[in-house]
Amino acid sequence: MLVCLLALAGIILSRLAWCDFAWEGRIPLERVTWQPLSIRDVPINVLLFVPLGFGLAGWRARRANGRQELSAGRVLLISLTLSVALEAAQLWLPERVPSAADVIANGLGALAGYGLFRAWEMGFGNALGRYATRRNLLIGLGLYVLGAALLTAYLNHSARLDNWDTTFPLVVGNEAVGRRQWSGRVEVLQLAAGLRDTPGFTARYDFTGEAPFADTNATAAPAQRWREGPATAQAGAGVNIGQGEWLATEESYSGFSDVARRFNAFAIQALVSSADPAQRGPARIVSVSADAEQRNITLGQERDALIIRLRTPAGGENGQKPEVLVPGVFVDGRPRDITVQYDAPMLRVRVDGESYALSYAPGLAFFPGFATENRWAVTMAGNPHRYDYAYWGVVIGLAVAVFGGLQLGHRLRNRDSQS
Fold first, then answer.
1. What is d(CA 407, CA 215) in angstroms, rounded to the nearest whole number?
2. Are the C-beta atoms of 93 and 23 separated by less than 8 Å?
3. Domain limits of the chain?
4. Closest CA to 142 of 410, 407, 397, 403
5. What is the pLDDT of residues 222-251, one digit of tens each?
């Protein structure tokens, strides 16, 4: 009973204590999600309910013919009921997100605690001999493989562009609200979205003459106009951008964003030269965004590096998990021909003919889920699949450790019992 009470107190304190409840006059069911807020939440929610399952397994219910221990089904039912109640309470906590995945993880944790109690009660050696049979291990391994396959599919899906917002404008030289100024020169800007051979959207801006700068592909893409400025003298091919001046479309750049979201693919090519290799913020060169915190895609400058922020379900609305860096692009003021292409889950960048590549899933979508920081900087160098290899190392290594350890323990017990 003591274990149950302590586990229950710990769960309630961690979930609801020190939170400010807010009643909106209705039940905000639209806040409920099926998926976890982050991958880190899954093991935390499993571990959180292990002590409760352990304590409930030892709880003895009073019956007419004596006292009887709770079954696994009842332990699971009690735990799920508590979990659903806690998730429902989070509907009135604005900083929390109720999730069905949390309920499932809590139930698995309670079952794990129940199993630990049974193994402790009969002795871990006896439990290994009884349950760690070849048949049970194969069934467990099959379930693990299925779970790993579902997780991998989820991670690959989270690297798509499903959460792109089609209301954002196209901005050159800043954010739309003017908080991330970049200084330099832009001569050409091309954007395409959709299939590589037959894109559903194309636009090209040559920045010659005076604003407004129209799309020379005649695809009815919005023209770019001075949002602030110009304060710098303009002459020749290209446009000079400096403090207090930047370009933006007056309308949303929905054609590009909508096609990119449907096909999970786009390409941006820009011929630019930086006026200062120490610019940071990052300073926004090209951005389809609403402000400094919400974007679909941003190409910016962070000191001498090209920085790319891409909005995905895994990367978030600000595209900071990860934010990708290509170092050494802006070490001097010479023009750089930059092409950024995304075909989920692969990001490819070419700078003056030098190519880089990086896979966004499953590895890059998996590891940031365990970080508490809002930003995760990744340098675009080396093997493009290095985070994928690390992910599979974790998945396979965990299986080898758990199932291999159980099998080894079972064999050692049999050997000791025969000697």
1. 66
2. no
3. 2-122, 170-384
4. 403
5. 999 999 877 676 777 789 998 889 999 999
